[in-house]
Amino acid sequence: MSIAINASTPDLCSDLPDLLYPSDSELAGPPIPTHAATFEHSGVAVAPQNSPVPKFRVFRILGKGGFAKAMLAQSIEPNRLFCLKVFQKDQLKKIEEVILDELAAYKRVGSSMPCPARNFLMGLELSFQTKTDICFAMDLMMGDLSKYMIDRPSYCCERALRWTSKIALGIRALHDIGIIHRDIKAENILIDIRENVRIADYGLCYIDKYRWPLDRQRAYTASAVGTTCCMAPEVLRNIINIGSKEYGTPVDWWSLGCVVYQLVSKNHRARFASSIAAILLIPSFQALFYKKDDILDYASWCSSGDRISRQHPIFEDFPPGIAKLLSGLLNPNLSTRYGFPEVVRHRSFMRSCGKSEFSDAHSRAREREALPNLLPDIQHHQKTAEVWHCLAPWERLRVPNVDWVKPTFFSFS
Q1: Rg of the chain over CA atoms, in angstroms?
Q2: 410 close to 109: Cβ distance less than 8 angstroms
Q3: How far is Cα 409 from Cα 8, in angstroms, rounded to an integer?
Q4: How confident is the model at residue 379 (pLDDT cuts 50, 70, 90)?
Q5: Which pLDDT score, from 0 to 100, does residue 396 have?
Q6: What molecular functions are annotated in GO for this chain (predicted)?
Q7: Residue closest to 266 by CA, chosen among 144, 151, 141, 142
Q8: Cis bond before residue 78 (omega within 30° of 0)
Q9: Residue 124, number of CB atoms within 10 A of its CB
Q10: Burial per residue of 154-171, b for 16 or more beta-carbon CB atoms within 10 angstroms, e otherwise
């Protein structure tokens, strides 16, 4: 479960507007975004520059999270399947910073210089709103990594290092455009129709005001946000003493270590004593840490003077290369914790052909066979589907500054 402590932090983009309802003076003629579609009260579509109007058939709920729910949908023009991430407007005061942060991150990802690693990041096609909801439309995926680990455990173990290399490339791509994800976990790693991974859910991101690469040695924020089981020690300490220590990009590499542990731990039972899975000796992809005390105890053990050069016992049953990779990523010492340079050169990623998983990662990902038959079925829901329209810009319940369309959205029609 994601948590957000001390939500009113200064690390949001300074130029982001507040999500406030427009005043009466704004209702007469609010500005219409360049690519936004609007609707007459009669339901007749009016789109700028003769663009088709995005409308969606919405079929069913795919899942629910702490801030939003995911809906299976199909755009009418262009005809594509989508996942709608739906935020309720009646929860706006609680989640406005999450919405603004996520939308700002999607816009930055979408507007940055093209780079192959961006294909391992989830992108936004458009955002729109109804009377009751704010919706983000994204590519429909086959599921998240946590679901795959339950449904296809052996498959996940076999592909662990291939997927890890793609996640690492995605993390590096975010850091290169001034974003720290801060909530890397299995539930936020999605699988596409070619069974490649994409990092998703930018609601808890730190977004630097500059778009250039973040400095690995620099601290940027002290916000205590994320999911407990994947939080780095330097973030957790800010829960105990709010704002006591700033941190930077290494927090994402610690979280990657937690995900890698889950991916490779199918047959390993060793856990911390406080874990229910440990007490019951339950194997199969359980998280390494469950409570903040587990992480702090681990960090304390690793930092003891006579143990700094030793490997924690929880990694003893793994092959030496994997154990070293995990120890490097899950290193409490920020100055020696693995980052992208150490991960990309790690011997564990060498394939049998003698090349690294990082070599030609993007081209090999694109060459994988698409498996659209594994996407959710909509045939049985056609008769019960609702059609969702954009809210007219003059209506009182309209929230400004959240409507956006990716410039290439209509090129798929």
Answers
A1: 22
A2: no
A3: 34
A4: low
A5: 74
A6: ATP binding; protein serine/threonine kinase activity
A7: 151
A8: yes
A9: 22
A10: eebbebbbbbbbbbbbbb
Contact present, 105 and 88 (Cβ < 8 Å): no
Q: Indicate the burial class of 347 (C-beta count within 10 angstroms; 0-12, 13-18, 19 or more).
A: exposed
DSSP 149: H
Token couple for 15: 């130029």
Distance, in Å, from the CA atom of 292 to the CA atom of 224, rounded to the nearest integer, reads 12
CA-based nearest residue to 365, from 176, 121, 139, 126? 121
Between residues 400 and 134, the one the model is more confident about: 134
> What does the DSSP assignment read for 100-112?
HHHHHHHHHHHHS
What does the alpha-carbon distance between residue 61 and residue 384 come to, in Å, rounded to a whole number?
13
Amino acid 35: pLDDT? 37
Q: How is residue 275 written in tokens?
A: 């874990």
Contact 90, 369 (CB under 8 A): no
At 2, give phi and psi (nearest 5°). -75, 145
Q: Give me the residue label for tokens 């994320």.
A: 226
Residue 64: which of 90, 91, 94, 85 has the closest Cα?
85
Catalogue all structural domains in the chain, each as residue range(s) with its CATH number. Answer: 56-139 (3.30.200.20), 143-363 (1.10.510.10)
Rounded to the nearest 10 degrees, the angle between the axes of helix 233-240 and helix 292-303 is: 120
For the segment 378-395, the average pLDDT, to the nearest whole number, is 75
State the amino acid at position 86 in one-letter form.
Answer: V
